[in-house]
Amino acid sequence: MSKPILLSGVKPTARVHIGNYFGAMKQFVDLQGEYQNFNFIADYHALNQMMDDPTIIKKYTLELAAAYLVVGLDPKKTVLFRQSDVPEVTELNWIFNSLITPSYLQSAHAYKDAVAKKKEVNMGLFCYPVLMAADILIYNSDVVPVGKDQQQHVEIACDLARKFNNTYGEEVFKLPKALIWEGESLKGTDGEKMSKSKGNVIELFEPEESIKKKVMSIKTDSKGVEDKKDPEADNVFFYHKLFSAHTIDELRSRYENGGIGYKESKEILFANMMAYLKPMRDKYFKLIKDEKYLNKVLADGAKRARKVAQIKMEKVRRAVGVR
């Protein structure tokens, strides 16, 4: 019996940070045995944000591919590919655009947020959920991992699948389910939700001195060394739960009973963080130089993805009458 298909895409619009790793990438690695993973690099989606410098998308695409590999994605188990290497997706996107109305898309979160912030909205952003639905449905996805705030994307994909199936009278598309990531939201160095746009992230592969500077700048209150501190309210301790598992009980006791200052806590955190990240950082700095290998991994993944997409599109074309 074949494994259920898990589909996820990440836009190559910035360097990978620890929120990406703990919030998604680590789970993809853990789920490789349970699902057939399709992980794509969403370079067409990235065009909504980065039309002015094409070299950056290429650069971030390879960096993201290298990051996926060094954190543990196995290209023999996971289909890792560029979105743009599967042209059937944009063909399906056009067909879906012919089924959906502007009034429906006006309810999409990304569009409403952009309008609320008085941003200029291009058609790529407006139709973003349709392209995402094509991404999801063309590979027969069973589950799509998302945060609670992204669940609407899966709902729109299901709506389009139903409308297509009902319009053409056959079950061409299955209805995927959202796999909601559980757990605490990742905090940035300022204590707010980690976000590239807020500049509060720590990148996985930035220079060590830069990481140290960011760790030492994590926002804290003004309590002294001997003051008792609530570990669950402290931003530094939040990171200890990610990187200091082997000493977490001792650190918690020192917080609750007094006897540790924030400077020392940050120094311990930095040492543990670098020890945790060292194996993947060492692999990354070697792998990122091998552009030929990275492109081969993505091309091999695209061949596997296209095989599935082409079969699906033959059914779609016959259903709509263009074959």
Structure in words:
The mean pLDDT is 94. With 323 residues, this protein is mainly alpha-helical. The chain is built from 14 helices and five strands. It has helices spanning 18-30, 43-46, 54-71, 88-97, 102-105, 109-116, 123-126, 128-138, 151-168, 208-216, 235-243, 248-257, 262-287, 291-320; strands at residues 5-10, 36-41, 79-82, 143-146, 177-180. The strands form two sheets. It has a three-stranded parallel β-sheet. Strands 4-5 form a two-stranded parallel ribbon.
SSE layout:
Elements: E1 5-10, H1 18-30, E2 36-41, H2 43-46, H3 54-71, E3 79-82, H4 88-97, H5 102-105, H6 109-116, H7 123-126, H8 128-138, E4 143-146, H9 151-168, E5 177-180, H10 208-216, H11 235-243, H12 248-257, H13 262-287, H14 291-320
Parallel strand pairs: 1-2, 2-3, 4-5
Helix pairs in contact: 3-13, 4-8, 4-14, 8-9, 10-13, 11-13
The main sheet comes to: 3 strands, parallel
Mean pLDDT: 94
Distance between the termini: 32 Å
Radius of gyration: 22 Å
Query: According to CATH, what is the topology of the largest domain?
Result: Rossmann fold
SSE pattern, N- to C-terminal:
EHEHHEHHHHHEHEHHHHH
**Helicity, as a percent range:** 40-55%
CATH architecture title of the largest domain: 3-Layer(aba) Sandwich
Q: How many distinct beta strands?
A: 5
The CATH fourth-level homologous superfamily of the largest domain:
HUPs
